[in-house]
Amino acid sequence: MPDSIIKDKTQVNTDIISMKYSYEQKKIIININNILLEMYGKQGWWPVTSKPGNAPVYFPGREGRRISDKKAFEIITGAVLTQNTSWSNVEKAIINLGKENMLDIRKISKSGSELEELIRPSGYYNQKAQRLRAISKEIICIGNIKSLRTYPTAKLRTLLLSWKGIGKETADSILCYAFNRPVFVVDTYTKRLFKSLELPFENYDEIQGIVHQSIQPSSSEYGDLHARIVKVSVLKQTEKFLQILKSRL
């Protein structure tokens, strides 16, 4: 379903409730969102596979729509695998898992050393395999992905953060893209961009707070803004973007 009809608009991060930002700062955030949309259009994040063994693909125009429980678990898997590596390496691991029909929560929970070998391209494969097994077992213990969907956003975030190896960026990626929750993901690219604009850039909660207070709650809006910030950074077009932005302030 479109995220516009998701009822849970709970403040996800209680640390940002009392934070105050100026009108000028909020205007910059709105302009960032609008200009990046003009430059790149919708990005269709998070990429998922269309068939087992295929590479994950993007679906522009379908941002914020509910996905199947199986695809939600694939996103959770990808969010863990992408830690400290490039997405191209994650794709290789996802393809390997798909070819062996291992993108399955129960199979991963019971997996042996074959899991390490399949995700080897993502790096830190021993550590990531342990985390994926543990996360899979945690979800099964709770019930399933469907059970997690019933959790209010703040409660689900707290649960995700309690899992070993899941920090704020990974937890919020899972919330936004796997569970369609209105949560903005803060990464290194965002911090660099905000620093160049003299916006809050050091504290995760401050960065998330200014976005949440500037743009209406929406998993599609927050998720796509994050995707476009990654895009402008990866393409090394930040200077071009900043020139456009400054001309509108």
TrEMBL record:
Signal peptide feature range: none
Domain HhH-GPD: 81-235
A GO molecular-function annotation: metal ion binding
Keyword terms, alphabetized: 4Fe-4S, Iron, Iron-sulfur, Metal-binding
Family annotation (InterPro entries): DNA_glycosylase, HhH-GPD_domain
GO annotation, biological process: base-excision repair
Residues spanning the membrane: none
SMART domains tied to this protein: ENDO3c
Name the record gives this protein: HhH-GPD domain-containing protein
